[in-house]
Specification:
Structural class: mainly alpha
Membrane topology: Multi-pass membrane protein
Shape: globular
Radius of gyration: 18 Å
Protein name: Probable membrane transporter protein
Main location: membrane
Largest sheet: none
Subcellular location: Cell membrane; Membrane
Organism: Asaccharospora irregularis DSM 2635
Number of helices: 11
């Protein structure tokens, strides 16, 4: 069953690649490619997907770095860009981690399926939201992500749960399916699935290691589906997405096969601070727009 899932990863990303390639080629011929730095976006992709492979997540750090480097990705196009840009690197991660970490097949497939369905529903809603609402949703979600990462940090360790199980059954399986459905929908708003999925898996009594194939597999299946919708709506930054995707794959491979040890506790603290700051800036922008509209 797991081999079938891996086959679906490849099939989904192949279809996504065709859709992305056609849209990029058409936009290039029409002169609709954005004026963005390929080098800066490439660095962003390498850095974020490198640490994504280690479990930190790529969405929130990408938002933060793109703001710092002034990549000129509009907040309205940010959710679509995050999904399109990180689709291929995440599929590579999923192929690696579903091979090296064992998960009970029924748990893996049902949680992944739930996330895919959630993403399909969510993408249609998010792609048509105005910029202020997106800023508000992303700002609140980033704040929640920062809190979850803080509570699950090894030095804090206030997250309930934990265990050694590699699968779920009964009520816990249903809870996991519902939870991943919601997380899949939120992914389309630019809200990373990793931190909340890791927290959910841990809370349901599973081994923390099992979170990797579940969260990466979920993203590998849902992101091509959600991204196809964003591409159809033209709700993403094409040039930045291409650069992040290409360099992100390199970051994934280096992190997965060459890196043996990093001061992850310190890095997670830095990521939490960056995410919290980005949340603040998003909410500040949304509030400012609201005040202007009310005048």
């Amino acid at each position: 069953m797991v081999n079938i899932v891996r086959g679906l990863f490849v099939a989904f990303v192949a279809v996504f690649g065709i859709i992305f390639g056609k849209d990029y080629s058409k936009a290039a011929k029409e002169g609709n490619i954005e004026e963005q730095s390929f080098a800066k976006a490439g660095f962003t992709g390498f850095f974020t997907d490198f640490f994504d492979t280690l479990g930190i997540g790529s969405f929130a750090p990408t938002v933060a770095i793109s703001k710092m480097l002034k990549l000129n990705i509009s907040d309205k196009h940010m959710p679509g860009t995050l999904n399109v840009a990180h689709t291929i690197p995440v599929v590579v991660e999923a192929l690696i981690f579903t091979t090296v970490i064992k998960v009970e097949p029924l748990t893996l497939t049902t949680l992944i399926a739930a996330a895919v369905i959630g993403s399909y529903i969510g993408a249609g809603i998010i792609s048509n939201m105005d910029e202020r609402k997106i800023q508000l949703v992303m700002g609140l979600a980033l704040a929640a992500t920062a809190v979850l990462m803080f509570l699950s940090h090894p030095k804090i360790d206030l997250m309930p749960g934990g265990g050694t199980a590699t699968g779920l059954a009964g009520g816990k399986l249903i809870a996991g399916i519902v939870g991943n459905f919601i997380l899949g929908a939120l992914m389309t708003a630019g809200i990373g699935l990793y931190a909340p999925c890791m927290a959910m898996v841990y809370f349901l009594g599973m081994s923390p290691d099992v979170a990797f194939p579940i969260m990466m597999g979920s993203c590998a299946m849902l992101m091509p589906v959600a991204s196809a919708k964003f591409i159809k709506e033209g709700a993403y930054a094409r040039k930045a997405s291409l650069a992040i995707a290409v360099c992100g794959v390199v970051g994934v491979l280096i992190a997965a096969y060459l890196v043996k040890s990093l001061p992850m506790d310190i890095l997670k603290v830095l990521v939490i601070l960056v995410i919290a700051y980005t949340s603040y800036t998003m909410l500040k922008s949304a509030t400012k727009k609201q005040n202007i509209e009310n005048k």
